[in-house]
Amino acid sequence: MKKIFINFKRILVTSTIFFTTFSSPLNANPKVLKIGAIPDQNQEVLDKRFNLFSKELAKNLDVKVKYIPVINYVAAVTGFRRNDLDLVWFGGLSGVQARLQTPKAIVIAQRDIDKEFKSVFIVNKKLKLDSISNKNGLKKLKNLRFTFGSENSTSGRLMPEYFLNDAGIKIDNFKGKRAGFSGSHDATLALVNSGAFDAGALNKQVWENNLKNNPKRTNNVNLFWITPDYVDYHWVAQGNLDNRFREGFTKELKSTILNLDIKNPQHKKILDMFNAKKFIEAKSNDYKNIELIARKLKKIR
Amino acid sequence: MNKLKLNSSSITFLPIIVFIPIAYELFINFHIGGIELFKEFIISALNPKINNEIIFTLVKRLNETIFIAFFSWLISIIFGVIFGILSSEIFYKILNLPIFLKRFLNLFLTFIRSIHEIIWGLILMQIYGLNFSIGIIAICIPYVAINAKVFSEQIENINLKTIESIKQINGIKSSTLITLVWTPVIETFKNFGLYRLECAIRSTAVLGLFGVGGIGTSIFLSFQTLNFRELWTYLWGLAILIIISKELLKNFNLSNISKKFLNSFVIALFSISIFSLSYFVYYIFNKNEIPFISINNLLISNFNFISYDFLKLLFETIVLYLLSTGIAISFPPIFILILNNKIGITIIRLISFLFRLIPPPVLILILLMFNDPSISLAAITLGLHNAAITSKLLLANLHNQDNKQYIALKSLGAAKRSSWLFGLFVKQANSYLAYCAYRSDIIIRETAILGVIGSVGLGWQLQESLSSFAWEEVLVILIAYSSIAIIGELINGKIKSNLT
Q1: What value of ipTM does the predicted structure carry?
Q2: Which of A80, A218, B84, B347 is the most exposed place for a label (fewest CB within 10 A)?
Q3: Contact flag A20-B132 (C-beta cutoff 8 Å)
Q4: What's the Cα-to-Cα distance from B71 to each of A110, A179, B66, B113, B374, rounded to whole Å?
Q5: pTM higher than the cut 0.90
Q6: A171: contact with B, CB 8 A cutoff
Q7: DSSP type of residue A117
């Protein structure tokens, strides 16, 4: 019995010391570029996409790059504000939120498709609803079980809710006087496909990808409506990267991202994972409209 | 039971009436839309995804979980004992300190106890960012207070006469105190402290759902994308962890507590304090930014919160609490009564293990496949999860109790069920109810995490406010939670003292 205690004591002491040293803040390396992204899709997809992207950045910029997965949009925004993340792939809304909370942040780039991004409304086939041609048709969704994606998603919640409001539909008009929040675009699709929800709204990109690659998940779903375009995703970086890494670092970072070329096979892999042909310049002004809508829907106060 | 008399055993069955409105609402909201997904979910339970990659992640996540759970458990027990002693009357009697200090401390502990560890986690995340150790701190804060309460209650049971007589011998005050408290502390640790480790593991899992790390993160991420096979790999991993830790602790004999063990405790305590201090210093000097960006706005903000039907949310939260407590109290004895044979009990054990294992947020998402979001749905989820916990305790106590009366009744020719009821259960009813009263304190706190997903009550509004970074609303909601929890605790305290 005594032996067990001695062992226990040893384990306790060593693990405490281990814990103390390894989790000490002094251990954090300031020379690592920490990349984050809002978790809007399947984690496997995100892991692959951003690990590949990190490798490319590390090669071009000659710094250590680490991808840190986060669990939700709020965590991404908070992590960015707290300097735990240096470069983050934000959605429209989360990017605006993050930049409002981190005044020195810089918009680096967006994809070609982000300039005119769209959401889709989908319905379960059993409802036998035909697709509609303009937003007024959204009224047909009244009294159905409806789900958004994540609470802070631009294409999965903010813009769909905006268009719904525009057509005169409030959350109260759905069944149970509530809308669901599935958490991600993939989940919205799966929930509507299974019939757990009657209808939902998601990112058009994810919808098209699934149509192509995952027919099982889209078997029982009909496209209901495609929204008008708006701006969405963008890369946002901390304002202090030049100080932390070297003079002109932010510029180099920006040009590395903008110079990803679809003709280069290595780059093509990355761009394909982003569903883009290339990255383009973006300004924070492009997102003014998103901010206005977000304020209207009280997602920004 | 010819006449229904209001004694403690009938009180345990009575709350079943809450099931009537719940069943009604669940029934009218029922739909079979999610049957395909549910089938997939069940089949995946038997066919979890296993490959090198996922096993690697599983082990990594489990390590994190063990780390967070073990350390938060250790810290919360140590400080729980300290605060337990500090908040017991005996401490003040022996050291002749003014009693108002105790009241002040109690109030403080009640406050930090009233807020669920997940909410502490969410708040701490806002201050410290994405940091591994906030998981530990978040669990520790309410756990220290909960443990302190349990320990101090046990210490209060020491006969006051003993204190008087020891005082008259004029012994050294501190050693008197230690001698007096030692036995109840060790006893409580044996009965309660070890069980808290399982709670800590489960809390860590739930905390992971909100982004702190550990197995919960994986569970939630795979669930969010409805990757059920992966989900079950993680859930079974968590199950194995819980079972192993329980077995290890069962064989852990506490009667041999030696000086060495104490020494290691002191060392652990010391390094932990150093560790937390280093963090504190680091943040003070390195990040001299105001944690809540809108802390100024907080003070000058115009409270337009009434627009959110605040009272309605408050009401919903209280209803949710009452309904789920009803289920948590009445389900275990009823089901044990109905399925009162070996196979039945095994089934109950198995099902309750599953309900304890699957974190409530995941459970409600599964139930959402068949039902529209409603208070009843949230209530049944929370109720079942907690019933699984109370049933475990009830079964254990029934098992440990001597069954002479039961055998006597049975040999007199009484039916099996009634002899169980009058021979076995009656004796347990009081302590079971007392435990349920304690459990219902926890249920209040848990309404927060369910509301987040079931879109009911304050929990939902909390999530919405947090994701809009509206701190003044978060503050109002926290105050509301805190007051519900404190009032609930006061009522439960009265009930408990009536029971004993």
Answers
A1: 0.74
A2: B347
A3: no
A4: 43, 39, 8, 19, 37
A5: no
A6: no
A7: B
